[in-house]
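Reminder to self: tokens first, then the designed residues, so the page reads top to bottom the way the pipeline ran.
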């Protein structure tokens, strides 16, 4: 049994092999899949959840952003939690609590109850991904650690693809609470399997003081920022004293957090890692790129359901083709990364993203399913050239003992940007929709030739008087929604093109972390 192996002085164990290693990989991949799936599975179900709980679609997106916010805040704590309690205990406990609060999400009968449950669900899931990566590296043979991270990255690619499909099917054929209940059997398999294999292969535990001041500043700063983003549109932004107060609290807290973390002996967010050039470049680029991906993933299915008339299932199927080329290309990219110019690979990925999303910005509700799906299919080509090369650039040159902390910090930036993107893109879509509706409404006047011709066409179709105005008002709303979402997609496409030069600030070589741990 692997559990009978005696640890070395530094609590390192001989690597696992054979069926035991395969089973562990499956268990960790399943847990990682579950955690990432919960970031996207709710996206296509926001209209159904909103209708069921009697709230607006904008308020319904809080179920997405609250989870991502909480997960983001906890991720920088991963290194401290793993060292204090042990990575195996941390991982299994995180899965168990995640299952409990998934059940509470499914039992929610109001939006506050759902958001609170999602918030705590995100908090307990925060360490899961980074600890999973560290456990894989610790238990794989050194020569196969690159493959371990490639497999882990595949989960990151696949889970967001499956989320919309599975979420749509569950919403249409069961009910939205089952989006959360499915975590119970999946989590049980992963937690039990990992504990049976790893319970006697615990990492070395080190008692370190926790940076309480930094933790409070992080929670208050990030929480106030998210409150401002989620509620700004409904409260007319800075005309509301509450939004102004949230903005000021966030600004002061985050401004104090930076110098505090740089001078504290045991920082909750180890900003010193940004002194490593490749980590700084990789983390910033990943965060901005993930902002764009998250924005598309939240707005696109919402638009298909609220404007085009798709069900949740069909919206999920329209989003899903992004994974086809990613699944085909990712193993090829993983095997050949040492031969690649990684900066060129990421540049290629961003050009693909920009082109595909620009293509999406030209579509309207009359487009066919194939026309909606084809740009997403093309976008998948860029995913495999994005995650794996940037992950290697980001971790290049780090020591093995820095990997968990670095992964937690980079995951914090990535998840936080995804949470911000949810709020910002929905706000931007609403704002641009109102603008286009006002512009279109100005063209409806007795002196406008086009309006006279259109009114005559309505008369000939038997649509007169107040019914004609109601019909026109509906048409204006539909057109404004389309023009607004096109603007959002266009801005995200431009973002990717602007990101391409920044990748080249990373400096080769992009080999394994110092100390021999591959990634």
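Designed residues (519 positions):
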């Amino acid at each position: 049994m692997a559990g009978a192996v005696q640890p070395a002085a530094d609590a390192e164990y001989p690597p696992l092999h054979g069926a035991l290693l395969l089973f562990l990989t499956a268990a960790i991949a399943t847990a990682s899949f579950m955690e990432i799936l919960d970031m996207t599975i709710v996206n296509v179900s926001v209209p159904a959840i909103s209708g069921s709980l009697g709230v607006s679609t904008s308020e319904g997106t809080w179920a997405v952003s609250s989870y991502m916010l909480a997960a983001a805040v906890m991720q920088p704590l991963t290194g401290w939690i793993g060292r204090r309690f042990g990575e195996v205990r941390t991982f299994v406990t995180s899965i168990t609590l995640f299952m409990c609060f998934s059940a509470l999400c499914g039992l929610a009968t109001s939006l506050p109850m759902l958001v609170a449950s999602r918030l705590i669900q995100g908090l307990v899931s925060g360490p899961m991904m980074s600890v999973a990566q560290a456990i894989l590296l610790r238990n794989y043979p050194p020569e196969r650690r690159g493959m371990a991270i490639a497999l882990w990255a595949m989960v990151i690619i696949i889970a967001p693809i499956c989320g919309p499909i599975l979420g749509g099917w569950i919403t249409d054929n069961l009910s939205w609470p089952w989006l959360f209940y499915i975590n119970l059997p999946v989590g049980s398999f992963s937690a039990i399997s990992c504990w049976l294999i790893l319970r006697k292969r615990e990492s070395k535990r080190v008692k370190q003081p926790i940076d309480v001041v930094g933790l409070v500043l992080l929670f208050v700063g990030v929480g106030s920022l998210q409150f401002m983003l989620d509620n700004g549109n409904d409260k007319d932004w800075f005309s509301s004293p509450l939004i102004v107060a949230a903005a000021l609290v966030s600004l002061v807290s985050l401004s104090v957090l930076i110098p505090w973390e740089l001078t504290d002996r045991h920082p909750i967010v180890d900003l010193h890692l940004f002194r490593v050039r490749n980590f700084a470049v990789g983390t910033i680029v990943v965060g901005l790129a993930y902002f764009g991906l998250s924005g598309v993933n939240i707005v696109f299915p919402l638009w298909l359901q609220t404007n085009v008339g798709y069900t949740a299932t069909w919206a999920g199927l329209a989003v899903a083709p992004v994974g086809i080329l990613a699944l085909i290309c990712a193993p090829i990219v993983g095997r050949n990364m040492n031969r690649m110019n990684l900066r060129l690979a990421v540049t290629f990925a961003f050009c693909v993203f920009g082109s595909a999303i620009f293509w999406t910005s030209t579509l309207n509700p009359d487009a066919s399913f194939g026309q909606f799906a084809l740009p997403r299919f093309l976008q998948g080509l860029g995913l495999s050239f994005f995650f794996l090369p940037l992950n290697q650039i980001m971790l290049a040159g780090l020591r093995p003992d820095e990997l968990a902390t670095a992964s937690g910090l980079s995951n914090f930036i990535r998840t936080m940007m995804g949470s911000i993107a949810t709020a910002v893109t929905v706000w931007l879509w609403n704002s641009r929709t109102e603008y286009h509706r006002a512009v279109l409404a100005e063209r409806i006047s007795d002196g406008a030739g086009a309006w006279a011709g259109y009114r005559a066409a309505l008369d000939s179709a038997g649509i007169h008087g107040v019914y004609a105005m109601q019909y026109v008002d509906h048409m204006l709303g539909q057109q404004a929604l389309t023009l607004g979402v096109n603007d959002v997609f266009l801005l995200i496409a431009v973002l990717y093109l602007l990101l391409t030069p920044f990748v080249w600030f990373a400096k080769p070589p992009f080999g394994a972390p110092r100390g021999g741990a591959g990634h």
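The chain has a mean pLDDT of 81.
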